[in-house]
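STRUCTURE:
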């Protein structure tokens, strides 16, 4: 096979792995680093009212995810109340709390954790037929005032987007305060300005709606609602700030609900009050993504098909298995490029897996002790001329007994590290003993000891490498990166150059030739 085919295959695998990795990183919110921190906001909504002594029904609008934020760990504390989630006629998320009999003061708590996910841009929001628009009626003097405003705004604009910007600027002009008061019924606050813009745009048949939300800003534990405008332009709801400084929406604004409806609709009670609190917290990004509905919509589908969807016990197994190919890749480099020999092809990786469950130094010491004693027993069995399978079975049984004895002695002496010997795979220990003994017979004691020491050193190096939290996180969270690992292995498979340890020997030959 030509090298070109291998090169193209390696390039294709690498590009595919990088493409999947970048997509997951951008669309799921999964962090690149295991301990990456992100700012989150804990929003608490306390609803208080006095029940009339009969059935109670409270429909509360709850926070909804927007273009770049997600709601996680949403909780409702409402004892003796049934809960039903849904959406109202404007598409807002709601939760309806009901009870058959309630009397006196009632307190309901709704909390949500808000965090920002990265790199996700939602598709254009098309106005659906099942989402009702606010029916705005403008008549009489208000209609005349609205047409006056529209005439000026249209003259100063080139399209609907610039029309909205011009209209919001006109509503701030002092000379038009009377016009604003006529349309809004005498009100002049921010909400009145947004409602006036909605009414004026309705005269021109441009769909618009009021958005009520919060400013996610530190230092304000008791936040107030703020308002802005959304206008349907080119089949997309575009936000416009109603403040006098700029029509661009502040990045810290979080929408709560859309339309003119109330935050809480109460039946069977009176003296309704709502109290909001906002607290800034720091949380690990990975915890946020896995704790609930934190990823972008397309990201949820990725997560369902990822290793995070497995049971926790299986996840723990794969956290170790997913770094094994990295150890194998390093082993390939050591054998084929550096030129260090080892016991078997992948025996150092298996030994590294055994050491991975213990501390490296303690594990290496215990491993050496068991292998040394096992070799003595194996050499004794050699004189008995046993068949292969019974001999291996006897060595394995001896290894199990050694593990038990070491655990008992170290525990009696107060060395808890000795208990970790139970984590060593006994089959790996047995096969290591058998491999060393066969090599001893074929190549001699010197070669056997040399390869044994080099294998243990390689295994300790691989164990340290495979224990890095960053590697474990990257290849468990983004297993597609192993496509790049495979491409590197394919390239190494075509390597026919000198090994590093062979260079001194061939250098001497080159000198003799000169």
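SEQUENCE:
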């Amino acid at each position: 096979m030509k090298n070109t085919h291998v090169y193209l295959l390696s390039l294709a695998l690498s590009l595919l792995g990088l493409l999947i990795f970048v997509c997951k990183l951008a669309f799921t919110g999964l962090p690149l680093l295991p301990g990456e921190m992100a700012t989150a906001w804990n929003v608490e909504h306390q609803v208080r009212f006095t029940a009339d002594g009969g059935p109670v029904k409270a429909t509360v609008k709850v926070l909804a995810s927007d273009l770049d934020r997600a709601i996680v760990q949403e909780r409702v504390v409402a004892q003796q109340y049934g809960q039903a989630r849904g959406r109202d006629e404007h598409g807002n998320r709601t939760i309806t709390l009901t009870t058959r009999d309630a009397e006196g003061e009632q307190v309901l708590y709704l909390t949500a954790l808000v965090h920002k996910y990265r790199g996700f841009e939602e598709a254009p929001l098309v106005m659906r037929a099942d989402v009702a628009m606010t029916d705005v009626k403008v008549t009489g003097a208000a209609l005349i005032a609205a047409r006056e405003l529209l005439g000026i705004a249209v003259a100063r604009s080139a399209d609907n987007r610039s029309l909205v910007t011009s209209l919001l600027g006109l509503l701030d002009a002092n000379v038009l305060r009377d016009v604003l008061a006529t349309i809004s019924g005498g009100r002049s606050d921010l909400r009145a300005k947004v409602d006036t813009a909605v009414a004026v745009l309705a005269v021109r048949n441009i769909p618009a709606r009021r958005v009520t939300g919060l400013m996610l800003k530190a230092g304000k534990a008791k936040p107030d609602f703020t308002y802005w405008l959304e206008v349907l332009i080119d089949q997309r709801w575009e936000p416009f700030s109603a403040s006098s400084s700029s029509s661009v929406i502040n990045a810290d604004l979080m929408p709560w609900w859309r339309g003119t409806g109330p935050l809480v609709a109460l039946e069977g009670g009176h003296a309704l009050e709502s109290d909001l609190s906002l607290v800034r917290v720091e949380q690990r990004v990975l915890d946020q993504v896995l704790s609930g509905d934190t990823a972008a919509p397309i990201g949820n589908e990725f997560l369902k098909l990822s290793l995070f969807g497995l049971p926790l016990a299986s996840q723990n197994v794969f956290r170790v298995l997913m770094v094994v190919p990295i150890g194998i890749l390093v082993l390939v480099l050591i054998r084929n490029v550096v030129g260090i020999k080892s016991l078997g092809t992948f025996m150092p990786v298996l030994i590294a897996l055994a050491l991975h469950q213990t501390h490296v130094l303690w594990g290496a010491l215990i491993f050496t002790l068991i292998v040394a004693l096992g070799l003595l027993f194996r050499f004794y069995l050699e004189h008995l001329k046993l068949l292969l399978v019974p001999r291996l079975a006897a060595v394995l049984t001896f290894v199990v007994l050694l593990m038990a004895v070491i655990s008992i002695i170290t525990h009696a002496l107060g060395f808890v590290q000795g208990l970790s010997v139970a984590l060593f795979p006994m089959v790996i220990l047995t096969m290591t003993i058998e491999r060393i003994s066969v090599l001893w017979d074929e190549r001699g004691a010197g070669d056997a000891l040399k390869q044994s020491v080099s294998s243990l050193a390689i295994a300790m190096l691989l164990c340290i490498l495979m224990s890095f939290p960053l590697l474990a996180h990257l290849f468990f969270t983004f297993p597609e990166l192993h496509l790049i690992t495979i491409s590197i292995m394919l390239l190494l498979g075509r390597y026919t150059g000198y090994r590093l340890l062979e260079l001194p020997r061939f250098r001497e030959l080159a000198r003799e030739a000169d």
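REMARK: The chain has 17 helices and ten strands.
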